Amino acid sequence: MYPAARLTDPITHDLAAPCGVIGPAAPAPCAACAATPVVIEFLPAAHVNCSVICTGAISGGIVHPPSPPAPIVTGSLTVQTHFLPAARWTPAPDTGACGVFLGNVALAATRKTLIGG
Q1: For residue 2, which phi and psi values (nearest 5 degrees)?
Q2: Which CATH number does the domain housing residue 102 bear?
Q3: Cα distance between residue 70 and residue 86, in whole Å
Q4: What is the tens place of the pLDDT at every residue in 8-17?
Q5: Distance between CA 60 and CA 58 in Å, rounded?
Q6: CA distance 104 to 20
Q7: What gap in Å lies between CA 91 and CA 111, rounded to an integer?
Q8: Cα 60 off chain centre by
Q9: From residue 78, how far is each of 28, 35, 40, 86 by CA, in Å?
Q10: What one-character DSSP code corresponds to residue 109?
Q11: What's the gap between Cα 57 and its chain centre?
């Protein structure tokens, strides 16, 4: 069981330094999310094809230059949001296309909604 990811949640490349946030699908937001959003702890749920808006920063510098929003490429195999795999915080294996981890390990204990898969 891992914390569920939501839009505006933090992301990190090295599990220490925040480097951006989870955002809506790019280049256009998910139509199903706009019509009937799934809400987790008062924020819209994130799923595969939502994006990571990443600066590329790590504790020791930068791993890649700031890039356009990249999609979340992996999610839960058994929990779906709008027929797409739900995204989960690290230590789940869910990542963005630039290799970023979803969430912030230091804040994981504060999350109340856990999902498996």
Answers
A1: -130, 155
A2: 2.60.200.60
A3: 16
A4: 999 999 988 9
A5: 5
A6: 11
A7: 13
A8: 22
A9: 26, 23, 17, 8
A10: G
A11: 16
Question: Which residue's entry shows tokens 């790019």?
Answer: 26
List, in sequence order, every beta strand (DSSP E) within the chain.
2-3, 10-12, 18-23, 39-40, 43-44, 51-54, 57-58, 61-62, 70-71, 80-81, 84-85, 101-102, 114-115
| Distance, first Cα to last Cα, the chain | 8
Cα 2 from Cα 111, distance rounded (Å): 9
Residue range of the domain that includes 73: 2-115
pLDDT one-digit tens code per residue, 38-94:
999 999 999 999 999 999 999 999 999 998 999 999 999 899 998 999 999 988 999
Overall domain count for the chain:
1
Which of helix, strand or coil describes residue 105? Answer: helix
Q: What are φ and ψ of residue 110, in 5° steps?
A: -85, -10
Distance CA 98, CA 67 (A): 9
